[in-house]
Structures are given as structure tokens and as C-alpha cells.
Amino acid sequence: MLGCQGGARVRSWLTLASGLVECLCFAGVVFGWASLVFVLKTEGYFSSSCIGTNRANETVTDCSGQDEQFSLVFTIASFMNNFLTLPNGFLFDRFGTMAARILAISLYTTGTLMVAFSGAVISMLLFPALSLITVGGMLFLITNIQVGNLFGSRRSTIITLYNGAFDSSSAVFLIIKVLYEKGVSLRSSFLFMSACSAVHLLRTFLLMPKTHIPYPLPEDYTYGMSCGKSKSYNLEGTRKEGDGGRESVPLQPEDKPQPESAEEPVPPVASFRSCVLSRFFLWHLLWLSVMQLRHYFFIGTLNPMLNRLTEGDPTLVSSYTNAFAFTQLCGVLCAPWNGLIMDRNKGKPLAPGETEKEADLRSSALSLFLTALQCLLFSICAAIPVLPLQYFTFVLQVLNRSFLYGGNAAFISIAFPACHFGKLYGLVMALSAVVSLLQYPCFTLVKGVLGGNPLYVNVALTLLGVLAFAHPLYVYLHCRQLAAGRSAAGEGRAGTAEDGPKL
Question: Which PANTHER family does the record cross-reference, listed alphabetically (predicted)?
């Protein structure tokens, strides 16, 4: 038995490490698009969109049409990254980890193969290819988030660590660019990424559960290749016909029936509809949407902003662009700090009558507030037209982005039933993606009416970002109300006990 327990610990850490590598090397590679575009332009993708024009007895090549095609590829892929998280979340909740990961591997492999066998003549393959890579990568992240359940006292830290690795995986396309300059062809790089799907399959069958990893984790829980018989748990405490034995928030293992006298009433699990209509979800959606819109607008206007602040100096623009790209690699280092903040209550004694979920909610309020505060500072710095200040803006941006997406996943896992995690995570990402489409009218406004100066839009988005503080305030007040209710109930019981002897 001790051997099984030791093997389970090793397997848990191996699952964590392999999942971190998976997210860091594959999940969010599409966000390194700027590096890949350099290679694709060299290869002549969409070169047919370049037009030669005569100016002052010189033939000048106008490739703005080519740039628009590349921009459209990324716009569609980034939108799919968020919007299709909704059906993927339903799939994960309904059919479990193995089914979701097999779909992810299929999509990802198809996408990388399409890039590998594409070329200047069939540049249009980039549209479906990048979207498939993006959707498959997001499914990798969704299925790995549950690994945090294996480390109860550090659950939020693990979740935010995975999200940070997802952000930092943009470096993969930068590596492909460097290898390309050293003589490694684009096809070879993407064929290698396709071949890595064999590793994803091995991890799926050996180191991941067939259904879900429950939380809280029972002492005898096993998954993957284990030395004992795997226990089967269901999501809502009672097995439903056709449910497939999904695991989460377990009551009792199915092969250990308890006598009727030992049975306790099972608290009802909130319905998906009630979760969506709750104030927690609505405030959280607002919190995520306004800050994500701010980040998307900043990234979309970064190049013209640098051109304006440097007065068109290409050397300075290149230097600041490289600085921004390298700061993005630090996401995996920044994200765990948010998880440590959310996990700080672990190991501390709970207040009388306080549940572990209430303690987690109380800790999340500080994380939500710090994320909103970071975004406010980042937005203010981005709005100030001082070039050296942008180095600090880059640092705040990557720190806030890591806190934002890691905190988003961690809060949903804390505030709502585990059986709805995939659906709620997908829904909030999909709805926030719709809100992020507002960046396009913002771009149009800056280019048109404002003559290329985004100052007024930046000020408006900064003021809009203040709304994000409503979410941590609501969570804080909710926790205070729960604490006050426990205190009143305790005083009532104490009063009854004191009056008893007098009667």
C-alpha cells in the first residue's frame, strides 16, 4: 500500500510537470504570430496581394494587402481561441478528459500538418490551420487545469501556473523563426510539432484520467496507470443513467457502499442556469471583459503608437518591439504569484462554521482586486505618451495578463460546482470574446476621427476599467455577510445554552 501511495505522489508530480511542458510548448503558440509572420513573408505567403505602383519614376511595391491578409488570419484565430471555448467546455464536462484530449490532439495535428504542407500558392490554408491549432491548444489548457485538484493546498497556484505557461508558449514561434534563419525549413519545424502528437497521446492514456479529477481529492483516488483498482466517482453525488461515471466532488467510492444508517443528506448542486444567472458570474464576466478589451486594444495599436512616439525611427521601433516580445515570455513566472495569493488561507484554521469554499472565496477577493489595480496602472501608463515609460508599461501588461487569465480560471473553479467548470469557463471566454470585438470600432475611431492619436480612447478605456473593481468588492461584501451570519448564529446558540440551566 505504501508503494501505491509513493507511486501516486510520483505520478501526480509527473502529471504536473508534463502538463506544464505541454502548455508551455504547444497550447498558446498562436500568440507568437508576429514571429511567424516574418517567416511566412519570406516564404511568399499572400505575396499575390502585393501591388507594384509607379511613384516618381520608381516602381514601389505596396504590400498592405498582404499585411491585411495576415492580420485577418490572426484575428479569426484569436477570436476562435475564446469563442469556441464554450462548446469545448461542454464537451469536457459531458464526455470527460480522454474524449476532449483526443479531439484536441486531432485538431492540433491537423492544423500543424496543414501549415507544414502549405505554401505561397495555397496560402489560404493558413486560415483553417491557425484556427485548428488555436482551438486544439485551448483544449490542452482546459484539460490540464484540473491537475491542480491533485495538489489541494496549492490548487490555485497550479491553475495560474498553467495559464502562465499558456501565455509564455508564444515563444515557440520565435524559436521557429530563429531556426528558420539558421537553415531549418518551416515544413520541418511544423512536421516536428505534428510528430509530438504521439507524446500527447501517451500522456492522455498514461497520465490523465478518463473522466475528471475530483475535488476535494479522496484519499484512495487513482487515475491513469496505477498499481491498484481505479475508483469511479460521479460529479453530483448520484449516478445518472448514461453519465459515464464522471468524477468530481466525490461522496463515496462506488465499490464501497455504506450502510443506510451512515448515509447523510447530499447537498443539492446548483444548476448550470442558476450559475450563469448568479451575480458572481455576471460580475466576473464584466471583470474579465473590460480588462481583456484593454489588453487587446493595446496590442493592436502598439506598432502605430511606437511609430508615433519614436517619430518613425525604425531602430527604436524595433528595439521597443523586441522588448515587448521578450517580456511576454515572463508570463509563466508571473502567474504563480496570483495563485499563491489565492492559496494563502490554506493550512490556516477555519473560522467556526466556515467552509473551505468560503475561505477560498475570501482569498480570491484580494486577487481580483490586485488584478483590477494592475490593469488600472497599466492603462494609465499606456495612455501617457512618454516613450521610456513604455518599458514599465510592458512589465505591467504581462504581469496583469498573467493575473487576469490565471485568476479567471481559478475563480471559476472556486466559486462554482466542479461539474460546471468547463461550461462556465467556456461561456465566460466566449462572451468576453464578443465584447473584445469592440476593439475594431475603437481602431476605426482612432484612425479616422482622432487622426491616429489614441489618447481619448485610452482615457475612455481606463475609466471603463474602473468597473472591474465592482467584482472584488461584491465578493468581499458577500464573504462579510457570510461571516456575520455565522457570528449571529453562534451567538444565538450560545444564548440558548446559557438560558438552558435557568429553565
Answer: EQUILIBRATIVE NUCLEOBASE TRANSPORTER 1, SOLUTE CARRIER FAMILY 43 MEMBER 3-RELATED
Do the beta carbons of residue 408 and residue 265 sit within 8 Å?
A: no
77 contacts: CB under 8 Å, gap ≥ 6: 30, 33, 130, 131, 133, 134
Residue bearing cell 473553479: 413
Give CA–CA dist 212/14, Å, rounded. 17
Burial of 348 (0-12, 13-18, 19+ CB in 10 A): exposed
CA–CA dist 378, 12 (Å, integer): 37
**Inter-CA distances, 366 with 40, 41, 195, 285, 426, Å:** 44, 45, 43, 17, 24
Quickly tell me which residue has 495559464 as its cell. Answer: 163
CA within 13 Å, CB half, 234: 14
Distances (CA, A) of 393 to 49, 193, 294, 445: 35, 33, 13, 23
pLDDT of the residue at 311: 79
Task: Look at the pTM and tell me if it is higher than 0.90.
Answer: no
Cα 171 to Cα 23, 28, 174, 188, 224, distances in angstroms: 12, 9, 5, 18, 31
pLDDT tens digit string along 10-52? 888 888 889 889 988 898 888 777 778 778 888 888 888 777 6
| 369-427 residue pLDDT tens | 999 999 999 999 999 988 899 899 989 988 898 888 878 888 888 888 878 877 888 88
The Cα–Cα gap between 332 and 22 comes to 13
Phi/psi class of residue 356: alpha, beta or left (left: φ > 0; alpha: ψ in -120 to 50)?
Answer: alpha
CB atoms within 10 A of CB 49: 16
Q: Name the 3-class secondary structure at 365.
A: helix
Among 98-107, 136-145, 290-299, 307-316, which range has the highest average pLDDT? 98-107
In order of 379, 393, 443, the CA distances from 390 in angstroms are 11, 5, 20
Closest CA to 14 of 151, 106, 136: 151
Mean pLDDT, the chain, whole residue set: 79
Which set of grid coordinates corresponds to residue 438?
Answer: 469592440
d(CA 400, CA 377): 10
